[in-house]
Amino acid sequence: MIAGKSIPAEWAAKCFGFVQEVDTKPRRRVFEVFRSQGLHANQAVEFFADGAPVLRSLTSYLSAESTHILDWFHLTMLHQYALGVAQVDTAGGKAMQEGLTSIKWYIRHGNAERALERILDMDDTLATHQDNPLVDKKYSKWKPLARLIADFYTCVEQSSSFVMDYAERQRYGERVSTGVVESAVNQVLAKRMVKRQQMQWTKKGAHLLVQAHTKVLNQEWEDCFRQ
Fold first, then answer.
1. What phi, psi does 18 have (nearest 5°)?
2. H or E element: which one contains 76?
């Protein structure tokens, strides 16, 4: 599922979302949202996204003058895992947190190569702790943590050309915080679609629910009944 929010300078923000396997014209759907907000041909647009190839192709389609800025939600999730590791292994959790601080610094300053090296170091540290049967028994999330680290490495490796100097952007007063991305996703998907709610959705059902929810969020729900 892809979800997001368009925030133009002089128009009201609008949410969008869809399940790619269900939506037959996903590019057109997002384009119509942008066009309703006054998007002009070849207008410069900044996209904050997680680096997925499908999103890069989508943003290029929407605007040839687009700038793709990576959202580092992986770091937030890894930090949460590090706190969990620290509860069963103080030294291991501290090592993870220090590694994440280093990775964040390199990414913030546009150095993808050194960030990748630090991610590999973290993977080696994880393997060492997994070999400890006492620690492994106390912490049940080693496998999802390992997958997240692997996904993070792949994301940085495949998107290295999009890693920019975030510190420089901040000095020039340009947006660097990607909290708006996570906020938009949470807003579109809502609580009822979160796993902890113990509700299951088919892809088609989820797609239709998101269409209804975005209409409500964009204050367009009543317009659907006036047509």
1. -170, 160
2. helix 73-88
Q: Residue 116: which pLDDT band, with cuts at 50, 70 and 90?
A: very high
Q: Where are the domains of the chain?
A: 2-71+178-226, 74-161
**pLDDT mean over 10-33:** 86
Q: How far apart are the C-alpha atoms of 4 and 172, rounded to whole Å?
A: 25
The C-alpha atoms of residue 197 and residue 194 are separated, in whole angstroms, by 6
β-pairing, 14-18 with 2-6?
antiparallel
| Burial of 201 (C-beta count, 10 Å sphere; 0-12/13-18/19+) | middle
- Reduced to 3 states, what is the DSSP secondary structure of residue 104? helix
- Taken in order 208, 212, 217, 223, the sign of the CA dihedral is positive
Burial of 99: CB neighbours in 10 Å, binned 0-12, 13-18, 19+:
buried
Residue 49 has pLDDT above 70, yes or no: yes
pTM over 0.70: no
For residue 143, pLDDT over 70 is answered with: yes
Residue 85 pLDDT level (bands cut at 50, 70, 90): confident
